[in-house]
Amino acid sequence: MGRHLANRHPGYDKSGDAVSNSAARPITVVKKSQPQGKANQVDYDHLNWLLVRWLVLAALPPSILEEKWLVNSYKFLNPCIQLWPSDKYRTVLDEVFRSMREDVRALLEQVSSKLSITLDFWTSFEQIYYMSVTCQWIDENWCFQKLLIDICRIPYPCGGTEIYRSLVKVLKFYNIESRILSCTHDNSTSAMHACHTLKEDLDGQKIGPFCYIPCAARTLNAIIDDGLRSAKQVISKIREFVIELNASPVISEDFIQISTAYQEGIWKFPLDISARWSGNYQMLDLVRKVDQKIILAFQYQCFSRQNLGLEWLFVH
User: Fold this and answer.
1) Residue 167: CA count within 13 A, CB half-sphere
2) Which residue segment(s) compose the domain that 66 sits in?
3) What is the mean pLDDT of each run of 10 residues along the chain (316 residues)?
4) Are 86 and 16 in the same domain?
5) Which of 52, 67, 98 is the last residue of a domain?
6) Is the whole model's pTM more than 0.85, yes or no?
7) Is residue 47 assigned to a domain?
8) pLDDT for the residue 105
9) What is the tally of structural domains in the chain?
10) pLDDT at site 26
11) 224: in domain
């Protein structure tokens, strides 16, 4: 993204030097009495372009720059600092987005091989349904390449028809609908329906072979979740205990020392407490390795530290 902004958007051309040489440059304090000239105005524009990059990389809305304490922080560093209004940030971000899409389209036009796409779906906090489209291919040097080409909103009722129409719109924009070899989806009914409709459409045009397959990782996760359904309540209790362990460096160190003394494996904190299958496995692995001797020793340690809440979690 830095190269794109430097090449396509004037005002950002100093960002590379600012980032790479920031450690070597001395810190300069700007005095209030210093006259404000053209050089300072350029510096302000440069700062605003750096903020544009921050907004994009952090996926933050432009309205965040109107937050009172953030503005006061900049004013504390330099009372004369000038930030763009939020409307200008939106305009610049739209321009950057459009130009980056054009660059991606030009890049894909140079790819001579067939392309595969991967679909991913999620619902935002505002209950808006989104779909991301990632493109993969093998280049002339037999190296795997991957590129996120679009994130689009799926309109209500967010079914297979709406997914199909949104996907076709993306493929046509990048002019790659005739070069798609396969599609990997999340194994949902709506995604399968959309891919089936796309296959019928491509087969009708006699473009070439096209297949769609479910994501192996999601399928494996669904199988493991189904197998652990009977142990869900036990895993939840273990997770509560591990959350307390992760939150306290002192207690986690005690746990490591006790488990090492009894030769029950080496534990590296913080432990994985995610709801994914890897986190569930970590919870069960903890129970499998911890025997009665460690339970009694850790109970005594919690009691001596008067951490009765953690002792109760460990017992249960």
Assistant:
1) 33
2) 2-98
3) 60 48 42 46 73 84 83 82 83 87 91 92 88 92 92 91 94 91 89 92 84 84 80 80 78 74 69 76 75 54 50 45
4) yes
5) 98
6) no
7) yes
8) 92
9) 3
10) 43
11) no
Q: Which of 68, 12, 19 is nearest to 43 (CA)?
A: 12
Cβ atoms of 118 and 136 closer than 8 Å: yes
Tokens read off for 103 = 């660059």
Here the tokens at position 143 are: 């190296």
Cis bond before residue 157 (omega within 30° of 0)? yes
In a domain, 242, yes or no: yes
Task: Please check whether residues 197 and 255 belong to one and the same domain.
Answer: no
**Distance from C-alpha of 164 to C-alpha of 158, rounded to nearest angstrom:** 10
Distance between CA atoms of residues 204 and 201, nearest Å: 5
- Our CA angle for 87, 91, 92, nearest 5°, is 115
Could you say which DSSP state residue 270 is in? Answer: S
Residue 293 lies in a domain: yes
**What would the two tokens of residue 76 be?**
């504390």
Token pair recorded at residue 93 = 């971000």
